[in-house]
Amino acid sequence: MRLLVVEDESLLREQLQQGLAKQGYVVDVAEDGKSGLYYATEYDFDAAIIDLGLPEIDGISLIQQVRAAGKEYPILILTARGDWQDKVAGLDAGADDYVVKPFQLEEILARLNALLRRAAGFAKPKLEFGQLSLDITAKRLLVDEEAVDLTAYEYKMLEYLMLHPGQVISKTELTEHLYAQDYDRDSNVLEVFVRRLRQKLDPDQTLKPIETVRGQGYRFSLEES
Amino acid sequence: MTTSEESSNYSIQTRLVISFSILLFVFLGLTGVVLDRAFRNSVEAGAAERLQVQIYLLLGAAEVSDGEFYFLEDLREPKFSQLNSGLYGFISRPSLGELWRSDSALAFSLADPQVLRQPVQVGETQSSKTLSAEGDEYFVLSYGILWEDGISEYSFTVIEDAAPYYSEISNFRTSLWSWLGGVALLLLLIQFFLMRWGLSPLHRMARDLKQIESGEKNQLAGNYPQELQRVTNNLNVLIETERKQQARYRTTLGDLAHSLKTPLAVIAGTMQTLSSSKADDKEQLDAVDEQLARMNQIVSYQLQRAVQTNNRSSLARQVQVKPVAEKVLDALAKVYRDKSVSLVKLLDEDAVFYGDERDLLEVLGNVLDNAFKYGRGEVSIRASVENHDSSGLQIVIEDNGPGISIEKQEYVLQRGARADTLVQGQGIGLAVVTDIVGSYGGTIEVGSSNLGGAKITMRFVSTRQGS
């Protein structure tokens, strides 16, 4: 999951970046509205966290421009004033939720999870596909009601695929949403993860949850239940 | 209230009416008195002239023989021969008294017969008034002559009834004063209309100011007379300054909030990192964390309070409730998309909030947020116009959540409940709402809804009402 954080306060930006990275998100940061707009429109993100009080371009205009550019990923706003004028303006401009400063990281994570899940079209906090059940809040996978241990990257990959069921996800897209920018994209590590995931999810080879679409990428092919 | 205060309360119109009326009555009164006096003098002078002519008539016709007067020819004035005609002729000598009287005077007697003995210098006329024996007033004119013999001095006296003259004067007086009275009334009426015309810009200004107060206008617009233009210009500047100052105040406070809250957020984040890495110091870290949360609550609460103080005194604007409520509902629908809340909204088109839109947003936002958050999928909002003169606004927001317990109900209704006395975890939302509602002189009630949860009722009265 790739996130964009636009926050001008450097300490807060770093805390967010570290906290979110610890949770397995790939985080890009921008320190003002202008560079925020550049990132937000040039790259594809799964969600953005945008502070309302930004230099160069303020948060509200930034959100409006991102939406005008056709980007539809969820946006969470951070507001310091916390008055309803700001909240309403932010949500009206195209944001999806707000968090009032100061905040606990847990709150951000909870809101973010809900937004990501919602953006993928899931109303419930768990993604359920037959015997597979992924709790994206607890970051836990159950197969036939039994917990299955996943490494951080295995989890990230599965979550991304399950949030986009039925869609063909290219290796490039997966890499972008799983790794920070400086990652070596030629590596065949993705294939290793897919193989390991298949073993863990479906040791008997009956479900075949992850399909390989030759020359294009991977597809999570189970039906939501 | 003392007399001086009372008098200072007189309106400009009253002052002008009173002073103009005094001026009018003094002027017309003096004019009347002067005209009356002049007419009277002229009537009396006319009477004296007439008597003088009569004297010459007598003189011309009189003959003396042995000290006796007789008249050869008829006097050309028939009144001299007509009994009690009101015109009487006398010839007298101061030493001898009356020597002759006209036929008309045969039954006439003076109250003081000495009048005829008054010595009159030769060639001189002497005019006076006297009374008859019956008490009627008469004009008297005597003329002293030296007879042809060169020795005898006589007085020719004509006495005439003054009543006809007086009735003439009184007629004149009646018509004079009724005319003057009519003129006074007419002038007062004209003055009243002139005053209305002259003072109408002031009335217009008062009306405009009221509209500004009620939010229908922003400025004293239109052309005022030169004398008022400077006042209205200054007032416009004042209004504008007040608005700017309010805006600046809010911006400054917003900036302050921003600059305080961001460091607080940083500290909170650092605390979190510390508590995960230093499990040994958890207790101390928790204590710091708790205080941090408290600081944050105090900052939020006091800033919100500061932003919305003295709303009532400032120039109120009017805000339609419906669009503002819909904005908030749209925002909340987004935030609580997962909850699939069924919403009942009855928003009266005419419902108007007399105040700042921000404050209304804050009130609706906080109360509705609670309803969405704690409600179990049912929320209702009603905004309606109250009172027969449409001066009041009532907003009722209900939900089907757990509601607010009786003890808590009392607590949240305490105005200005201090943030540092708030129980941990308790939001500042309702406290802020209570303060805002209170600052507009409104009331807030917390009760139980038929839906099963909390019911918040807020009532506002227009500031227009009192003013």
Provide a brief overview of the structure.
By secondary structure, chain A is of the alpha/beta class. Chain A has 8 helices and 12 strands.
What order do the helices and strands come in, and which of them pair?
The complex is a heterodimer of chains A (225) and B (467).
Chain A (H helix, E strand, L loop, with lengths): L1 E5 L3 H13 L3 E5 L2 H10 L4 E5 L7 H10 L6 E5 L4 H10 L3 E4 L4 H15 L6 E4 L2 E4 L4 E4 L2 E3 L3 H12 L4 E2 L1 H8 L10 H13 L8 E4 L3 E4 L5
Parallel strand pairs in A: 1-2, 1-3, 3-4, 4-5
Antiparallel strand pairs in A: 6-7, 7-8, 8-9, 10-12, 11-12
Chain B lengths: L2 H6 L3 H50 E4 L2 E4 L15 E7 L3 E5 L23 E7 L5 E10 L6 E9 L1 H52 L11 H52 L4 H26 L10 E3 H15 L6 E6 L4 E3 L2 H18 L3 E9 L5 E8 L6 H8 L15 H11 L3 E6 L5 E8 L1 H4 L1
Helix pairs in contact in B: 2-3, 4-5, 6-7, 7-9
Structure description:
The complex is a heterodimer of chains A (225) and B (467). Chain A is of the alpha/beta class and 225 residues long. Chain A has two domains: 2-119, Rossmann fold (3-Layer(aba) Sandwich); 126-220, Arc Repressor Mutant, subunit A (Orthogonal Bundle). Chain A has eight helices and twelve strands. A five-stranded parallel sheet of chain A has the order 2-1-3-4-5, sandwiched between helices. The longest helix of chain A has 15 residues, at 105-119. Chain A is globular, with a radius of gyration of 18 Å. By secondary structure, chain B is of the alpha+beta class. Chain B folds into three domains: 1-210, no CATH class; 215-307; 315-466, Histidine kinase-like ATPase, C-terminal domain (Heat Shock Protein 90, 2-Layer Sandwich). In chain B, a hairpin with a 5-residue loop joins strand 11 and strand 12. Mean pLDDT of chain B is 81; it is low at 309-314 and 418-426. Chains A and B meet through helix 1, helix 4, strand 5 and helix 5 of A and helix 4, helix 5, helix 6 and helix 7 of B.
